[in-house]
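For practice. Supply one:
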Amino acid sequence: MDKPYLRYGIQLQELLAVKHGIKPVLRTVINPKNIKNIETLCREDNMFSMTKSFNHLYGTKFDSALNVIYISKSKDLLNKAYLSDKSGDRKKLGEVLGYPECCVEFFSGALKDAESPFPVKTYLKTNGKPSFLVNNVFKLESRLSSSGVEKIQKNPDFANRISHLFLISHIPCSYNCRESIKIGREMLVLLKREEPELAKEIASTLKKPLLFFDDLNWVIFDGKVNGKIIDYTSIWPPLSLMPENLINKFREGDKVKVGKEYVEIFRDGEIIHRIKKKHKYDGILLDFS
């Protein structure tokens, strides 16, 4: 597939998923200057599109209108997705977008807990080893607060580094959700066939273990996790918005141990840095390797 969509802010794997029947509807925020170009491309690819502006969405008011584009092979599904957004029906929207029912229910219930980010909520519901196929840590669009969105807008290079690193576009109910793994596997098979280099980059990154603090602060390692400890050889790109001085502390180490009160960084068996945890789930090792 040609890649003109990328120039206009549409992620290639989501478009491929719609085109090949893995995903019924693509829904994403779009820059208004790109609308006409994307509509033209959709017509050329025998897909339908609809763009709507929102001044508020799901209780959040915007300083300027938010433009949301819907892309599908079905006009009826486009309208259903838009009406779900308009009425604030998250469950219906999740259904129209093709998300697993268990994940839609999880997302709706988890919204009541605003204290911890969604990857923490998903982690707490995970029994057993997480699957890299449902690693959605870098897919920020559906879970950032208004303040988080502002930080992303002020750091466009950061968004460009991570926005394509996903195989599923929804928030999974656990990191070993069977239905989500099925979607992620289908997406990876499709990417390997259509865009092998992109598939390789995505898979190699999603398979890395990481230390998660919040949606904008995490560290990816080239290493091996054993419980609350990770032995590593290097920090892996892309970098988060974590302060450079803190990232450098991890670069100086070769092992991290996550305790109840501190994240400890070691070098050659000796503690070289201790980072005070802000709360219980500040610093969680996610082993997607």
Notes: The chain has eleven helices and ten strands. Residues 99-207 form one domain. The mean pLDDT is 91.
